[in-house]
Amino acid sequence: MAHHESVDEARQVDVVVVGSGVSGSSAAMTAARHGAKVALLEKLDSFGGSAALSAGMFWTAPTVEAYRTRIPMGNPELGARLVGDYQAALAELRASGVRVADEPKEAIMTFGIGYSTDIHGILAWCRERILAAGGQVRANSPVVELLHDGRKVTGVIAREDKDRLVRYEAGAVILATGGFQGARDELTRYIGPNADRLMLRSNPGSVGDGLRLARTAGAGGTTAMSTFYGHLLPYPVDRFRQEDYLPYSQYYSGSTILLNMLGERFTDETEGDELLNQAVTFQPQARGVLIFDEHVRSTEAMEEPFPGLGATDRFATAVEAGGLYAVADSLPELLDKVAVWGIDRQALGLTLDAYIHTVASGGRVARGIKVSQTARAPQQGPFYALMVQPSITFTFGGVRTNTSGEALDHDGQPISGLYAAGADIGGLSNYGYAGGLAPGYITGSWAGRSAAERAASGTVRDRNAVPLRAGHLSTKGETA
Ligand SMILES: Cc1cc2nc3c(=O)[nH]c(=O)nc-3n(C[C@H](O)[C@H](O)[C@H](O)COP(=O)(O)OP(=O)(O)OC[C@H]3O[C@@H](n4cnc5c(N)ncnc54)[C@H](O)[C@@H]3O)c2cc1C
């Protein structure tokens, strides 16, 4: 059925924003500030998407060079503009009166810089600004169709209160639906069969609607389709609710030795947990084992990874959650216990011996796998082992866009009236991670501004070309 033939109601706005996470909220607020009449539509019954579940750390790469070094496969134009706009975004947030920490936190995810923020305050402030400018903000309103006339995007169809269809006619549409991590079929298509094992560490509404809708208007995809953000979790876990997302994350894994189910190392552990999380996904059974000593357990595994997150005993929490673990006074004893999990004891011994010997001798490679200069071997017991599994918070691939937030087709040409922001944009992060909240807020502001300008100019042009006719809008009752 073509939904636009039988809608219950039609509304006219300048800009429709699809999704109320940090990028959609920023996009809608920015568009409203640039004079647009805005509708911000959210699928779920609450606002804020994954941003509302987040730790509130507003961070990204400190310099363009740092972005390029850490994320060599990232889109260099998007990355440069992101870093360039970061200070202005921070200044805007500070001016709003929402809490932003005075002191920066450095080395976030090994290389980033950022500030702890009141993310709920930021989201609420955006919604207040939209309403104050005469805009609409609606929950329980999934966008189910993108309208376009072959030349330009003309609006969307949203479903309200479960079955009422509302057509929004708009000069511009911004897709900010938060990525496709909730769509198992698409994860398998892009990431491979082990994607079935990824634990979903996200709001439940981000199931790829933005990418699917954009493709119906001819948008292209990007690089990075098989890479994603997430953290290692204990394996198995009895349950995984939203309140478990932060305490179960094993942020300190970069200070452990990480083995696969064959008893082998497979990556440089010091790359950091969000990269190890991806590497584990492609190992047998998508599982790994962290091995560490009392020093790591009592320091990094107890510290708060971000200010404001609170210090948790992550190992104890993992054990309580049901994770497989072992504790022993010596490393050989620990490996005996780990072997019971079905991992070859001899392989475990060879891998550990080679690693410890390489670190002690200042070597750089152990059994073919890089050992970083900063690697530290386990020293004093008790020694610990924890089985881990990967999770997915959002996907790094998405809609192809330029630095104005315009959606592009596969030839690189803008799709008139269509924009994307946040996790719906692809290629800004690619294997390496450039942050979620700050990139969302900043790319939202690119799209919001461009969309407001396009809607303002498009309205005049379209009115001249096609005068609106009375009775132009059909309703359910009228179209048999
Ligand atoms: C536990 C956790 C902690 C995190 N901590 C941090 C942190 O400290 N710092 C950081 O930088 N990042 C963090 N992140 C990541 C960050 O939250 C995301 O990167 C960011 O929220 C992405 O913004 P977004 O606007 O693209 O998507 P989201 O914030 O996820 O919002 C997308 C919204 O779109 C809605 N939607 C989807 N489809 C439709 C549709 N068809 N119609 C209408 N609405 C739709 C969804 O329901 C959702 O509400 C964290 C994430 C999690 C889960």
Write a structural description.
This protein is α/β, with parallel strands linked by helices and 480 residues long. The protein has two domains: 3-224 and 395-465, FAD/NAD(P)-binding domain, CATH 3.50.50; 231-389, Flavocytochrome C3, Chain A, domain 1 (Alpha-Beta Complex), CATH 3.90.700.10. The chain is 30% helix and 20% strand. The protein has twelve helices and 24 strands. The protein has helices spanning 22-33, 64-70, 76-96, 119-132, 184-191, 209-216, 273-281, 294-298, 314-320, 331-339, 345-360, 437-465, and strands spanning 9-12, 15-18, 38-41, 57-60, 105-108, 112-116, 136-138, 143-148, 153-160, 164-169, 172-175, 199-200, 228-229, 233-234, 257-259, 288-293, 325-328, 365-366, 369-370, 383-389, 391-392, 394-395, 406-408, 414-420. The strands form seven sheets. The protein has a six-stranded mixed beta sheet with strand order 7-3-2-11-24-23, with helices on both faces. A hairpin with a 4-residue loop joins strand 8 (143-148) and strand 9. Helix 1 (22-33) packs parallel to helix 4 (119-132), helix 1 packs across helix 12 (437-465) and helix 3 (76-96) packs across helix 12 (437-465). It is elongated, with a radius of gyration of 24 Å. The two termini are 13 Å apart. The model is unreliable at 460-480 (pLDDT under 50). Bound molecules: flavin-adenine dinucleotide.
